[in-house]
Amino acid sequence: MTHQIQITVKCPLCHHSLMNDTVLIDQLPAIELEAKIGQKLGKIYLSQIYGSYYKKFEGVEDVVGTIAVFSCSNCHQPLPVIQNCDCRAPQVGMQLEVGGVIKICSRNGCKKHSLEFEDVNDAFILLMKGDQTGLG
Ligand SMILES: [Zn+2]
Ligand SMILES: [Zn+2]
């Protein structure tokens, strides 16, 4: 049995939800981010399933290796850079609804990401929640 962790996130700056339930990825509401790649501004939608790399690009090209500047789709402020990835691109953070941070690499094609919980109990709750959906 595999655990499928669903990540629902909000903007760490304005605390508005980043979930868009009109765009579905993996049959679930996607995480909507504004993305600037080069001079182009568009949207990138990410799967809310942790470990799924399905993405949708809107207005920006899906070119492996490019680095995007991610911003909140509500307040339009750039997401805070938490650290640099092993691939030297910035990793940005989003706030987990349950408390904690998910860090994602801003380089298209880089699979580095990680979760940091404020409290281990939050991680446990998230895993339990994933089980109850029957998706695991
Ligand atoms: Zn915001
Ligand atoms: Zn990276």
In short:
The protein contains one helix and ten strands, in the order ββββββββββα. It has one helix at residues 120-132, and strands at residues 9-10, 19-25, 28-37, 40-46, 55-58, 69-72, 81-84, 90-96, 100-105, 113-117.
Number of helices: 1
Q: Assembly type of the shown chains?
A: single chain
What's the SSE pattern? EEEEEEEEEEH
Query: DSSP strand (E) fraction?
Result: 35-45%
Rg measurement, Å: 14 Å
Structural class designation? mainly beta
Q: How much helical structure, as a percent, in the residues?
A: under 10%
Describe what you observe in this structure:
There is one protein chain. This protein has one helix spanning 120-132; strands spanning 9-10, 19-25, 28-37, 40-46, 55-58, 69-72, 81-84, 90-96, 100-105, 113-117. It is mainly beta and 136 residues long. The protein has one domain (9-131). Strands 1, 7, 8, 9 and 10 form a five-stranded antiparallel sheet that branches. The longest helix has 13 residues, at 120-132. Bound molecules: zinc ion (2 copies). One zinc ion (ZN) binds next to loops.
